[in-house]
Amino acid sequence: MDEVVSKPIGEAQPIDPRHGRRILKGIGAIVSVTIGGVAAFAFFLAPTRLAGASRSARLIWQNRQKEIVETLQRENADRVKSEESADQKAQAVTKE
What we know:
It contains 1 helix and no strands.
């Protein structure tokens, strides 16, 4: 391997078009099978990896929505109570 060979390789030889197409078809087939295998692997692997994450995200979202609804209900109830007490004070003032 360390030897330096001084023989020339020779001129470039043209490839027969039919042979070139066969080579390109072979390369295309290999690339297609490789991409298809990667896509199939990712498709079948993704649901198992993402199932826990999507469930956790859904639970976090549901808990957050529940907290928002509870907070809005509590604030609405407080606002109604304060309006009722203000109405009662106003009625007490007008009765006097």
